[in-house]
From TrEMBL:
UniProt xrefs under InterPro entries: ExbD
Subcellular location: Cell membrane
TM spans (from-to): 12-37
The protein's name: Biopolymer transporter ExbD
Keyword Transport: yes
Lineage: Bacteria, Pseudomonadati, Pseudomonadota, Alphaproteobacteria, Rhodospirillales
Gene3D superfamilies on file: 3.30.420.270
Keywords: Cell membrane, Membrane, Protein transport, Transmembrane, Transmembrane helix, Transport
Membrane association type: Single-pass membrane protein; Single-pass type II membrane protein
Family: Belongs to the ExbD/TolR family.
Coiled-coil ranges per UniProt: none
Amino acid sequence: MQLRSRYRSSSPVIGLTPLIDVVFILLVFFMLASSFLDWRGYEMSVTVQDKSTARKSDTSPAIVRIDGSGAITLNGDSTPLDKLAARITRDHAGAPVHLQPVNGAKLQSLVHVMDVLGRDGIKNVDLIEE
């Protein structure tokens, strides 16, 4: 009498536990094999001030304006972002840098400028309003 062989299915059953083990091993492998993001941090102090509380100093500041289209001007002269820090270092060494986003300036443009200035070692940066 063979009752079991009659109801037995022909396709093999794949267990769920080995599948979970394989997924877990792959997860651990990719976590160990991947490189984590390299967050570069740098020291940069930014103070926000308006014109009424602007500090008086002996050196004239470098005023960097960022408009809504992302165009950057340094004391009125149009400057590409990749040459901004070099121009500030060359023409305004030691002077404070005032970042002035003009109405409609995108925050991402401001962050790009701050990132470039910080990466090139310019630390005396103030954020002023229009």
